[in-house]
Write a structure and sequence with these properties.
The complex is a heterotrimer of chains A (283), B (108) and C (138).
Chain A: H1 2-15, E1 30-31, E2 34-35, E3 39-41, E4 53-55, H2 63-70, H3 78-88, H4 99-103, H5 112-115, E5 118-120, E6 125-127, H6 129-141, H7 151-162, H8 178-188, H9 199-203, E7 210-211, E8 214-215, E9 226-228, E10 233-235, H10 237-247, H11 258-269, E11 280-282
Parallel strand pairs in A: 9-11
Antiparallel strand pairs in A: 1-2, 3-4, 5-6, 7-8, 9-10
Chain B: E1 7-10, E2 19-27, E3 49-56, E4 59-66, E5 75-82, E6 86-94, E7 99-106
Antiparallel strand pairs in B: 1-2, 2-5, 3-4, 3-6, 6-7
Chain C: H1 5-19, H2 21-37, E1 42-43, E2 48-50, E3 54-55, E4 61-66, E5 72-77, E6 84-90, E7 94-103, E8 109-116, E9 122-131
Classes of the chains: A alpha+beta (283), B mainly beta (108), C alpha+beta (138).
Chain lengths: 283, 108, 138
């Protein structure tokens, strides 16, 4: 009896969020006065999802959290950008090179964040930005790879991302990327864990609703790496994926795993058209 | 010294004499509160920045006593009067005795 | 070990006292205020406290204080393990006696600002900030 009551209660709770539906707000996201595309028509390949407007996670946050992203100085994620700027110029490895030796200033990275993950034809592999950074480090610099979701890597991703701020996400899903897109999509709709939740359950079917006190977003990753107030530090895409799957009480995939690479291709492509915001600020 | 401590300060490059300007400061620091425990259940000792000061040409603008309830990467925003051209000196004092500085010149 | 009824009651009472956290926290708050004011009376006007009604995460809560003419403003969080947050001492070149920072709140609680005004009197302002606990592990 007790179990049944609980189950009934759980069912009620699951259906309850509709009552509290808050949805995305109508504020304008402008960073240092530059207006971002934070809501736009969903890309054609999302027709089957029933989502016609893609919305940045920024619109689902409280005003005070939103405000921290409006000014580059107020954004605590920019500390990591400063730190990565030092790393950018630091000579490391057997080739005695720094990032700057080949790429000059980080401005040369403009547009890079927007198209990653990207197929590398030469290597015949799908590369996330983190993989590309590490390939540079190990092959060009003769330096040690950064830990995939370590502070140094996440900071470097933030530095590279900020060069593309305001540019539309444009991740390719055709050609060799198609199989990753399909694999990522399969993961997106697979229910994981004891709670049997898929990405879509929260971020496609219930965005705008509350899961307890959390205002569910569309799970867009155009703002990654993101400074999470909870962590008081930058969080990387795969780190967030892992957290989400862990919260379903599942064994999760590892950061940098083939599953998460595919999922990143798929989720990133769902944001095609939104501005790159990284490093953004979230709760 | 906490590793990788980096002060960031935002001050206008110039002002008119007597003008009030907005100053923002942010410094990377974990602000370990002393309330947390490590994975073995041992308390992690407190290690915070306990004081922040801003002076202009030797005169105080603000002097802040800080407790562990200040967030990681301490942020402050306040207003200063610029009576003449000169230097703002920002100083953060760490529990471990380290002192972090930044100086910004303002033209009038 | 045997306990008499009286001893058991006494122990229970002591335990209850130990766990009445607000009582203890308020004592610490009162002490901190007394130390700052020297026990002076607190006016209701003269200091303004700006804090969010709902903080999405207690780790980083933006907060602002303002008290025209004040020489110092003390900020307290009544429900934290230790109530002290910061004390702003304004110098002669402060263009306004106001400041913003970001603070930690261990949970939903009152945030209190006490200002020492230009005439040496004190003013108090308080605001309840709700700290939400996320559905997804925060």
């Amino acid at each position: 009896m007790k179990y049944k009551t609980l189950t009934a209660f759980a069912a009620l709770v699951i259906s309850a969020p509709i009552v509290f539906a808050g949805g995305a707000d109508d504020d304008t996201l402008s960073i240092d006065g530059e207006v971002m595309v934070s809501k736009t028509a969903a890309p054609a390949h999302m027709a089957e999802t029933g989502i016609d407007t893609i919305i940045s996670g920024w619109h689902f946050r409280e005003d005070d959290t939103q405000a921290m992203q409006l000014d580059t100085f107020d954004n605590p994620g920019m500390i990591a950008v400063d730190q990565a700027m030092d790393a950018w110029k630091t000579v490391e490895g057997t080739a005695e090179k720094s990032c700057a030796s080949c790429h000059e200033g980080p401005e040369s990275m403009a547009g890079v964040r927007a198209v990653y993950p990207k197929w590398n034809a030469e290597a015949g592999e799908m590369r996330t930005l983190a993989m590309q950074v590490n390939t540079c480090r190990t092959e060009q610099m003769g330096a040690e790879a950064y830990k995939y979701d370590g502070a140094q890597m996440t900071a470097m991703e933030a530095l590279i991302s900020v060069q593309s701020r305001g540019m539309p996400v444009n991740v390719a899903i055709d050609g060799p990327a198609a199989e990753y897109y399909e694999k990522g999509k399969e993961i997106y709709y697979t229910r994981y864990g004891q709670l049997e939740l898929s990405c879509a359950n929260c971020h496609e079917q219930n965005y705008g609703n509350f899961i307890r006190a959390d205002h569910l977003s569309q799970g867009q990753i155009n703002g990654f790496p993101t400074y999470r107030l909870k962590n008081a530090g930058l969080v990387q895409t795969h780190n967030r994926f892992r957290g989400c799957i862990r919260d379903t009480r599942a064994e999760t995939f590892a950061v940098g795993s083939p599953e998460f690479i595919a999922l990143e291709v798929y989720v990133a492509s769902r944001g095609n058209g939104l501005s790159v915001e990284g490093p953004s600020v979230r709760q | 010294m906490a590793s990788g401590v980096k002060p960031r300060v935002k001050v206008p490059k110039s002002a008119s004499a007597g003008e009030a300007i907005v100053i923002k400061t942010l410094i990377s620091h974990p602000m370990e509160s002393g309330q947390r425990k490590d994975s073995n259940g041992n308390a992690i000792p407190r290690s915070i920045i306990n004081r922040f000061t801003c002076e202009f040409n030797g005169q105080s603008v603000v002097d802040v006593t800080m407790e562990p309830a200040i967030s990681t990467n301490p942020y402050f925003e306040f207003e200063a009067t610029v009576p003449e051209a000169g230097d703002f000196v920002f100083t953060w004092y760490d529990d471990d005795g380290s002192v972090y500085n930044d100086t910004q010149s303002v033209a009038v | 070990m045997d306990f008499t009824r009286r001893e058991t009651l006494a122990l229970g009472g002591a335990a209850a006292l130990t766990f009445v956290l607000p009582f203890r926290a308020n004592a610490a708050v009162d002490d901190a205020i007394a130390e700052f004011t020297g026990g002076a009376a607190l006016a209701d006007a003269g200091v303004e406290l700006t804090a969010p009604e709902i903080a999405e995460n207690g780790n980083t809560v933006p907060i602002a204080v303002s008290a025209p003419g004040a020489t110092a403003i003390m900020l307290l969080a009544a429900g934290n393990p230790t109530p002290g947050v910061a004390t702003f001492n304004f110098g002669p070149l402060a263009a306004s006696q106001s400041a913003s920072t970001r603070m930690r709140l261990a949970g939903t609680q009152d945030v209190i600002a006490i200002a020492k005004l230009a005439d040496g009197s004190f003013a108090r302002s308080a605001k309840t900030v709700k700290v939400t606990i996320g559905g997804c592990g925060g």
